[in-house]
Amino acid sequence: MLLKEKFNKTKIKLVLTCILGFIFLFLQRKEYISSCVSINSLIYATTFFLLTGFHGFHVTIGLIFLIVTLFRFTQKVYSAQKHQGLEFAI
Questions:
Q1: Could you tell me if residue 49 is inside a domain?
Q2: What is the pTM of this model?
Q3: CA–CA dist 11, 71 (Å, integer)
Q4: Whole-number Å distance between alpha carbons of 85 and 14
């Protein structure tokens, strides 16, 4: 979208992606709190918390990158010719 100079669509899609990241992290937190098992319960629980924890960490880091990118995008740092930071965040 940015290469076609559709800046509004790019901004909307960045905002939606950030919202989806927040929703995922909220639901993961809710699932951890309501879980009836702990990380020390069984091998299944340990594996579950390990895998979802790594995925949550991955989403958190990606969300930070996307929020910084969105902030920079609103400051008009990116253009159709200069968008390497946006590509890296994506």
A1: yes
A2: 0.77
A3: 10
A4: 13
For residue 73, give every residue at least 6 positions away whose Cβ sits within 8 Å of its Cβ, in sequence order, or none. Answer: 10, 11, 14, 86
CA-based angle 75:60:89, to the nearest 5? 45
Give the integer Cα–Cα distance in Å for 17 and 10: 11
Domain carrying residue 77: 7-89
CATH, residue 66 = 1.20.120.80
Domains identified in the chain, total number: 1
* pLDDT tens digit sequence for 18-71: 999 999 999 999 988 888 777 777 888 888 888 888 999 999 999 999 998 888
